[in-house]
Design brief:
306 residues, mainly alpha, globular, disordered C terminus
Length: 306
């Protein structure tokens, strides 16, 4: 039992970190937005089924639809449409590092949109480091700013902003609907939006599955979508939002390792430096909560959400 929580924490990081190379394999042959839509068609059923089996309330009440709609549009549809599109142009490690700015962006947007919050000077520096780290990862060439990789980083960063905004909006409308049910309904809302965006972009709606893309889809639905979310919900209840957010900073490690082993993706020095800058930014934004977490231990961490 002493090592159970750290082991589960690492398992979630490994499962979700390896989704980046899996998505990169899939979107090389499957239209990216359509692929995201098909994924959440299936994952929504798994997550809601998990909530029902656990005996949790599945049916939303009238006042809970605002949060579901906000999460479905921003957390599921916009985030994954931009993320999957961006992963056509960047390596798995680069995408994972840019996504690691989500907790920083969430803190910044929550201070801007939620009452009675203030980022402060140190927090503002941390937010700035998040932007700086992303710029370092992009590593733009002044002579050729409009490269495919720069465009990919911008798409993934826009995906991170969409996720952060969705997190803040759902926080403002949070009700008593269990987390698994909330996530499942967000997916049920987001998947049709993704299908609509796919059609509007003119993506082909017939998919010729290659063996690699089929394996990636199977991994992303029952493993990353089913098992990954199940473990995440369990850890969220046990650890709280601050400590579970730290899993974001292990994703680039697993993404880089698997991307290198499976896809022969190179790891640029700018990616490592950018990741370090983003991690420092997160530590500054969440410095008080992290200090209390270290002082009090994980048993009280669920109370520390700032």
């Amino acid at each position: 039992m002493r090592y159970r929580l750290p082991a589960l924490f690492l398992l979630v990081a490994a499962i979700w970190g390896t989704t980046f190379p899996a998505v990169r394999v899939a979107v090389a042959v499957v239209p990216p937005v359509l692929f995201a839509a098909l994924r959440f068609d299936a994952v929504a059923i798994l997550v809601l089924g998990y909530a029902a089996v656990r005996g949790q309330r599945v049916r939303p009440r009238r006042g809970e639809w605002a949060g579901i709609l906000a999460g479905g549009v921003f957390l599921i549809a916009m985030h994954h449409a931009l993320l999957f599109a961006g992963q056509q142009y960047v390596t798995s490690a680069v995408a994972a590092v840019v996504v690691a700015t989500v907790p920083i962006l969430t803190a910044g947007l929550s201070r801007a949109l939620l009452p009675n919050t203030g980022l402060g000077v140190v927090g503002a520096i941390g937010l700035g480091l998040g932007f700086l780290g992303t710029a370092i990862v992009a590593d733009p060439d002044p002579a050729a700013l409009y490269t495919a990789e720069t465009f990919g980083v911008l798409l993934v960063f826009a995906a991170a902003i969409a996720f952060a905004l969705g997190t803040v909006l759902t926080q403002r409308t949070r009700t008593g609907l269990p987390v698994a049910s909330l996530q499942g309904w967000m997916m049920l809302v987001g998947a049709p939006v993704l299908h609509g965006v796919s059609v509007s972009l003119g993506e082909p709606q017939s998919v010729e599955w290659t063996p690699a893309a089929a394996v990636a889809f199977v991994y992303l639905v029952p493993v990353a979508g089913g098992l990954g979310y199940l473990l995440y919900f369990d850890l969220l209840d046990r650890l709280g939002s601050v400590e579970i957010n730290l899993v974001t900073y292990l994703l680039p490690v697993f993404a880089a390792i698997v991307g290198w082993l499976a896809l022969r993706e190179a790891l640029a020095a700018s990616t490592i430096v950018g990741f370090a800058v983003v991690a420092v930014g997160f530590a500054l934004v969440k410095r008080r909560a992290l200090a209390r977490l270290v002082a009090r231990g994980p048993q009280t961490s669920r109370k520390l959400d700032r």
